[in-house]
């Protein structure tokens, strides 16, 4: 049967191949168009999110001379807004510090962290960055032992610390419409200890924080 088709058969099969190639090209073009449209929609609906970093990669600690022994912890949290169109707010910020044996993703961050504290809200204009000084005065009760002793009495440096930052990112999508995302960032590795004025500490590079996508809600 096949033999009788002769040259006509190979023409037909060449024609089929051409059609198949056309289909393949059309499919690739359609996929590309869909990818471009989806990305365009994403850009419009979901602008870049806030970027955080810890200036100098350090949380500085200063023992406070007082009736009750305490250490002051200080860090500078830098928030950058990569968007040219929308203003961003970072609200209800909680900072947790974890040692290198505790996963920062724990569901009980308050219990499992070395220390937890609140930071002040940040407002970041389009394509600007804002530095926020985060401070807490911690006593032996606020901090898991042996870390209080390390920072207060021994003046040691705790290395390889992960900072978790929980908060709400509010984005002004259009005037009059706010989008709210729960956000979680991990900043690692940080030093805890040292002096704010310390030359050596000041030369450490900033540590960028990784954004872990959280649940989302619209207001
Ligand atoms: C603020 O953050 C804390 C700790 O993450 C959370 O328990 C609390 O519900 C938050 N408050 C608001 C108003 O979102
Ligand atoms: C790390 O932190 C956890 C929780 O605070 C604590 O139980 C654990 O003993 C610490 N690990 C080390 C090696 O200090
Ligand atoms: C958006 O959220 C910010 C921060 O909470 C608030 O100041 C502003 O008024 C809100 N805008 C609208 C339109 O709700």
What are the SSEs and their pairings?
Elements: H1 2-45, E1 51-54, E2 58-64, E3 70-80, E4 88-98, H2 109-112, E5 115-119, E6 122-124, E7 129-139, H3 147-152, E8 158-174, E9 177-192, H4 199-202, E10 207-218
Parallel strand pairs: 2-9
Antiparallel strand pairs: 1-3, 1-10, 2-3, 3-7, 4-5, 4-6, 4-8, 8-9, 9-10
Bound molecules: 2-acetamido-2-deoxy-beta-D-glucopyranose (3 copies).
Task: Throw out a few tags for this protein.
five-stranded mixed β-barrel; 4 helices; alpha+beta; 219 residues; binds 2-acetamido-2-deoxy-beta-D-glucopyranose; 2 domains
Please tell me the overall pLDDT.
86
Q: How many domain units? A: 2
Distance between the termini: 71 Å
pLDDT < 50 runs, ≥5 residues: 215-219
How many H/I helices?
4
- What oligomeric assembly is this protein in? single chain
Radius of gyration: 27 Å
Main structural class: alpha+beta
- What series of H and E elements makes up the topology? HEEEEHEEEHEEHE
Number of strands: 10
Beta fraction of the residues?
35-45%
Bound molecules: 2-acetamido-2-deoxy-beta-D-glucopyranose
Biggest sheet, open or closed, and with what strands and sense?
5 strands, mixed, barrel
**Strand order within the widest sheet?**
1-3-2-9-10
The general outline is elongated
Helix content: 25-40%
Q: How would you sum up this structure, described in words?
A:
The protein is an alpha+beta fold. It folds into two domains: 1-45; 51-218. It is 26% helix and 44% strand. It is built from four helices and ten strands; from the N terminus they run αββββαβββαββαβ. The protein has a five-stranded mixed barrel. The protein is elongated. The termini are far apart. The structure holds 2-acetamido-2-deoxy-beta-D-glucopyranose (3 copies). One 2-acetamido-2-deoxy-beta-D-glucopyranose binds next to β4 and β8.
């Amino acid at each position: 049967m096949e033999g009788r088709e002769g040259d006509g058969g190979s023409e037909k099969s060449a024609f089929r191949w051409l059609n198949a190639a056309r289909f393949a090209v059309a499919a690739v073009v359609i996929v590309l168009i869909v990818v471009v449209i989806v990305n365009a929609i994403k850009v419009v609906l979901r602008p870049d999110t806030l970027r955080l970093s810890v200036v100098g990669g350090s949380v500085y600690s200063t023992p406070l001379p007082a009736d009750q022994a305490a250490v002051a912890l200080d860090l500078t949290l830098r928030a950058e807004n990569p968007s040219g169109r929308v203003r961003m707010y970072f609200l209800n910020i909680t900072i947790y510090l974890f040692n290198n044996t505790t996963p920062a993703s724990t569901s009980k961050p308050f219990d499992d962290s070395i220390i937890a504290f609140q930071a002040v809200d940040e407002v970041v204009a389009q394509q600007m960055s804002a530095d926020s000084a985060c401070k807490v005065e911690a006593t032996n009760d606020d901090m898991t032992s042996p870390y209080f002793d390390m920072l207060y009495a021994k003046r040691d440096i705790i290395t390889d610390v992960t900072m978790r930052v929980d908060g709400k990112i509010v984005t002004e999508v259009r005037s009059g419409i706010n989008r709210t995302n729960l956000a979680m960032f991990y900043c690692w590795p940080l030093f805890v200890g040292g002096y704010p004025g310390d030359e050596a500490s000041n030369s450490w590079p900033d540590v960028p924080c990784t954004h872990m996508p959280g649940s989302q809600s619209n207001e």
